[in-house]
Amino acid sequence: MSTHATAGRVGELSKGEIFTLLANARRRYVLHYLRRSDGTAELRELADHVAAWEVGSTVEGLTSDQRKKVYTSLQQTHLRKLDEAGIVEYDHEAGQVEATPAAEELEVYLEIVPEREFPWREYYLALGAVSTALVFVTWTDVGPFAALPDIALAGLIAGAMTVSAAAQMYRERDMRIGESGVLPDA
């Protein structure tokens, strides 16, 4: 495999370099496929899937020209760039591609964020503010909260946090490249 790739190399790249690498749809498709295939693939198999995704077809429905175009592009350009950045190890002679541990570091850059994303940060801030207010009014024995036992309040707050976190996990389960059949935007 490559001598360029070193674990942790992504940490040496600037955000601009990372975004430049990930700006190309073929490179994102490569990472998507590697993530779905346990981190390794043969170049031909990888090129077939990337080509199928690009043209909106199945692997079986590809023409030889479509396959060749993507294969050549991956071989000559994209895999080498990902290899030099330490994101994959690309063995040009064997036609093997393997994601490095550094590829995991790109997850934060690969999140799929829909236009109408629910603002979880704001939700948790509001939940924290409401929880703090409840603790205060219970502590000062104000209004109907005076009768609320401390353990009930603690259970209410813990339950709200647990349900909220579970809802967020459920909602975002398919929002990372390679986690589902959802392809990164071209």
Q: Overview of this structure, please?
A:
There is one protein chain. With 186 residues, this protein is mainly alpha-helical. It folds into 2 domains: 9-110, Arc Repressor Mutant, subunit A (Orthogonal Bundle), CATH 1.10.10; 120-171. The protein has 8 helices and 3 strands, in the order ααβααββαααα. Strands 1-3-2 form a 3-stranded antiparallel beta sheet. Residues 2-8 have low confidence and may be disordered.
Features:
8 helices; three-stranded antiparallel sheet; 3 strands; Arc Repressor Mutant, subunit A; 2 domains; disordered N terminus; mainly alpha; 186 residues; elongated
Spell out the blueprint of helices and strands:
Elements: H1 15-22, H2 25-36, E1 40-42, H3 43-55, H4 64-84, E2 88-91, E3 96-99, H5 101-104, H6 107-110, H7 120-139, H8 150-171
Antiparallel strand pairs: 1-3, 2-3
Give the tally of β-strands. Answer: 3
Describe the sheet with the most strands. 3 strands, antiparallel
Order of helices and strands: HHEHHEEHHHH
The neighbouring-strand order within the major sheet is: 1-3-2
Ends apart, CA distance between termini: 29 Å
Detail the poorly predicted runs: 2-8
Shape: elongated
Number of helices: 8
| Count of structural domains | 2
